[in-house]
Amino acid sequence: MWELVSDTVASLALSSGVGTSALADSSVLQASPGRGLVALLAAFVVATLFYAVTLHLAATFFLGTVPTQKAATVAPAPALVSVLLGRYGLERVGFISQRLGVLIVVVATLSADALVISRVYDLDVVPTAILTLLHFAFAAVLGIALANLFGQV
């Protein structure tokens, strides 16, 4: 809806000749949309909070009562990997297609998640794999629900 309104306003302004240079140049509103250190840090903090909540839910479901601090300790690792490698899932990068990029990001994020889960929760290989897959499932379900709620899908 907002795209339709903004397109209509922009076309009316351009046809009338009022504010032509300001509306045609989107850099007036944002110096560099979606880029910069602040955007990267904000994405990292949001991803860390999201992974901490979903990991705590998965750990409580699988292990029983666990302290939330363990989930908060684990969460920055998969958040960092997914934020830094996130571009691979959005567009073609070099010889890596978009589909292969998504696979790379998911495997790298799950690997980082499993490595830190095994250290922090002091689990063997099989319980670590189960908790990692549960964490992935909880994150996928909550992520899809939030994306639908905010209209991103």
UniProtKB/TrEMBL annotation:
Transmembrane segments: 40-64, 71-90, 96-117, 129-150
Keywords recorded for this protein, A-Z: Membrane, Transmembrane, Transmembrane helix
Keyword Transmembrane: yes
Transmembrane helix recorded as keyword: yes
Pfam families: DUF7473
Coiled coil: none
Top-level taxon of origin: Archaea
Entry-linked InterPro entries: DUF7473
Protein name listed in UniProt: Putative membrane protein
Organism: Halapricum desulfuricans
